[in-house]
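Hi there. Long-time user, first ticket. I'm pasting a complex I've been working with (about 1182 residues overall). I'd like to know whether the download I got is complete or cut off, because the file seemed smaller than I expected. Thanks.
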Amino acid sequence: MTSDNDRRRGLLARLRGRPVARSRGRRRLGAAVRLAAALMLAGGAYTVFAPGVQAQDNPPLSAAANEGKALFDVSCVTCHGRNAQGVEGRGPSLIGVGSASVEFQVSSGRMPMARQEAQAMRKPPQFTDEQVRQLGQYIQELGGGPQVPQGNNLHENADMAAGGELFRINCSQCHAFGGGGGALSSGKYAPSLRPASDRQIYAAMLSGPQNMPVFGDNQITPEQKADIIAYIQETLKHDQDQGGFNLGRYGPSTEGLAIFLVGIVALVFTSLWIAGKS
Amino acid sequence: MKRRKFDAAALPAKTAGALDDRFQAATPLRKLLNKVFPDHWSFLLGEIALFSFIVLLLTGVFLTFFFEPAMTEVVYDGSYAPLRGTPMSAAYASSLDLSFDVRGGLIMRQMHHWAALLFMASIVVHMLRVFFTGAFRKPRETNWIIGSLLFWVGFLAGFTGYSLPDDGLSGTGLRIASGIILSIPVIGSWVSSSIFGGEFPGTIIISRFFIAHVLLIPGLLVALISVHLGLVFKQKHTQWPGPGRTNENVVGERMFPRYALKQGGFFMVVFGVIALMGGLFQINPIWYFGPYEAWVVSAASQPDWYVMFLDGSTRLMPAWEISIPLGDGYVIPPLFWPTVVLPGILVGLSTMYPFLEARRLKDYKHHNLLQRPRDAPARTAVGAMAVSFYVVLTLSGGNDVIADKFHISLNAMTWAGRIGLLVVPPLAYYVAYRLCLGLQQHDREVLAHGVETGIIKRLPDGRFVEVHQPLTPTDGHDGHGPALDYVGWVVPKKMNRLGALGPAIRGFFYPIEKPAEAPVSPGHPPVEPRPEREEIGSGERR
Amino acid sequence: MSTHTEHQAQRGPEPLDVNDPRLSRFEIVEEGARRDDIEIVHYEPQVVPGSKAERRLTRTVAAMFLLTGAAATAFLVIYIWWPWKWEAGRGGDKYYTPLLGATLGIALLGIGFGILTWGKKLLPKEVSIQDRHDQPGSPEDRKITGETMLYMADELGVKRRPLLGVSLLAGLVPVGAVVAAPLVGGLISQPHKNNQMFTTGFAPAEGGKRIRLIREDGRPIRPADVSVGGQLTVFPGIEGGVSNKHADSPTLLIHLREDDAQKSRAANARKGHGDYMWGNYVAFSKICTHAGCPASLYEQQTNRLLCPCHQSQFLITDNAKPVFGPANRPLPQLPIEVDEEGFFVARSDYTETIGPDFWERP
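Hi, the file is complete. Here it is re-exported in full:
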């Protein structure tokens, strides 16, 4: 309940903060465009003279992709390299990962990464939805790859029960029955699904970010993906717990903690009072 | 014939007389009403277990009316939409019905589960009280053994009950249990296939667990609890040392009415706490776990807390396999040691402890007076060692949750547990031992020199000393009275314990009047007024 | 303590005549206690009857009892009229159980603390001392009881007629066995019937027909169904393959990346499992070799497979060798290939034993 409120509050803050972010973004964009233009000039000159294989294969970019490229060249190029070809030891090539991957990583704030670590953490996103779309478009046009369908609500008219069954076979082993996430080997972890949006869940399944396996459309069809999203959003997140406060849905660990911290403590204090000399 | 006049006032006496004519109840009843029980808060911990057991019986009977212990496959068609149309066992479906389609069924289920956790928790806490105060010594060794057995029988009751709903989480637990049984050398596979009626999971285990959970194990629990209480009654409760208390008497209140009122009230409080927890805190939400399927599992799969120490020991155990190169080759898998051998050792050690200690101390006398933990440093230290061992194992049983929530590497948690299991218990032994000695020393110091008053005095030669208030009238020139003997009970360490501050004014917001000064009913013995208190000075002669 | 001495002084050594009309009821109670070796050494009323303190405490206790009545009534009202049927989302039904718990809890706590306050504050305080009498029986009594028991043995004459004892024993032992026989005989079950501990649902059917790998909904699987870096839980395509009847058959089909696949192939070759993979696809048992949980937390970049129950970690690219935790044995690998119709099949059954270890696993 509280986490939901937080989320809502966070959303409001983000909404309110948006104009500021955008103006700053635009300013940065302007600088980026200028920089990009300079780079492109230099690059163009370079490609004319150098026998570049990649450059010749690239079809012309769309307007959105060009915007995306500008953003990329400012924020991502350090680790992912020029034309998203990757930098050894810093970041992988993004050719062929598709807009789904970009959307997941950037809209959840995992990218750009603050520093190199075992696993990128969810953070407040640095780009607006529009910018994420442009970045995605750029990567998509560079090398193709999976894409998330249009729309923000991807689970309309989906079957929760079927989604539940799929969730338990494919997702719960890492993200837990309650969707709260869990530990993986050596400091890695499966994140909680609570802050994830429909599009992010969809994108994660399609692209298999970090250590998550890929669940392509042949394995889990788009309809089944919608079912899973419906189960996560409607049952695990929106549905209030039937039996009272859920103790964080950690299962028996917190239940054991509760029986000592609440039950035993209350009753020991009662017995102290009963036997106390007044 | 003349009709006898009905005299209502004489009726109780007449009935009582008639009853005594037939059952000779007057004398034993008087003895019962008069039995004296000592009063201390720690003596009420065992009652929590007893009362939660009663709640378990009450709620459990309710649950049996609706639970169907069968593994026949059905398709769920109840109120809970996210599972509708899912094939599942009848046991799981009826547990869902209990949660969603029986009015008030969910709170009964949750109260039953919380009561089970409370039952086990209070058994452990009660056991610690008995251990650390030496209440298990002769003549109460039998009751200590019964108590330890109660923990293990309760453990079985909990595990069988936890498995009954046949949900995804408990099924995983059952799968591990089958693995544990399989790991027993020589007979493992035979025992497992006999219990499960073939290969895991089979189709009969839920019905077998059901009859064990609702008849055999509760029967055993009732029998053991009756003997446990009977022995407490027969051997009379232990008591703390103190004024007027000896090894040969019991100082306290008679059973009726005060003691019985307290017990009755406390039962209601235990029941109330279970009801509050059952309603306000969700426990074991089986509808998220889905039906048990051998290929479904969740991150953070844990058993209930009292099984968690075994899960922890299993997680910490290195992968040491013993293979025996005879014939086709035989193996003792690593699972065997932490789950079969370790509990075996624990049962043996805990039940035998009273005899081991008596042997070590060559102490074969009757002990009806308790010992403060500080007065038996070796025992307290052993206890601290055992507790820390258990805690490390229990924490390791939830190490993936800890790793996830506190952003620690899972592998590091396992290693911390492995090292901790070896390092922490001896450390706990040492620290507890030193603490006991320190506390003992302070007690003796206060008895010899008096209570610290917080008053600092400057001596003519310029030294500063703190003034101590001796506990006895002073005689010598140095302000010390004769040294007092330690009698195994609390030594006052603060001035207000000596009455230096006078009685507190009673009442929360405004003072209420003082207690009676004189006897009021002719039956009551006279009460003397409080003796005047003397002002406490610096401890020197005035 | 002062009352103590005073009372002792009052009381004579003779038992009181309880029929003496001058005696108060308390004195009779005291006499009864004395007969049970109990001495009431301290008895002090806590409140003066009719005093403000008494009225206050009485009111408190009464308020608690009335609170119980109100809470219990509220419980009934909620139980009967509150909307309690499950509905999706956040509605009144989610508060049904908490409200029942709160009202029931308050009702029980009210009566509990009411009784406790009554007993603790309103009743006179007492300190009684009872003798324990936990001395063992007198040596004389012990002797008499011991002799009586020995005499019983004499009467039975087992010593003089040893045949009786031996034959009784000989008769009783089989009777004991008769009691145990139906239980043991009924429950015991041969674990190696049909070689069940060493076979799975993937064992080729009659005539050597290879078993297909299917999904949980029964569809067979084409290689294209699993993306690179993807995993899929597969089952034997037989009757009851996707059910707990074949609890040891669930298998994890993994599509490795090219370089990982090469490592895996090399590892396979080292183990003599050269042809177990098909293309870049591997299939390992999902049932952990440690305690039998589904080991299925597949990390597609590190190629580790984690078991959530006891944290055993298996390295998929090295024949699923255990690299961390308590598991001692690699996950068995299923040899797979693709049949004429383009679906995955098992070339044969597993060649190693599935699931937790046991004594006679070869």
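A couple of notes from our side: Residues 36-240+253-304 of chain B form a domain with the Cytochrome Bc1 Complex; Chain C fold (CATH 1.20.810.10). The two ends of chain B are 88 Å apart (CA to CA).
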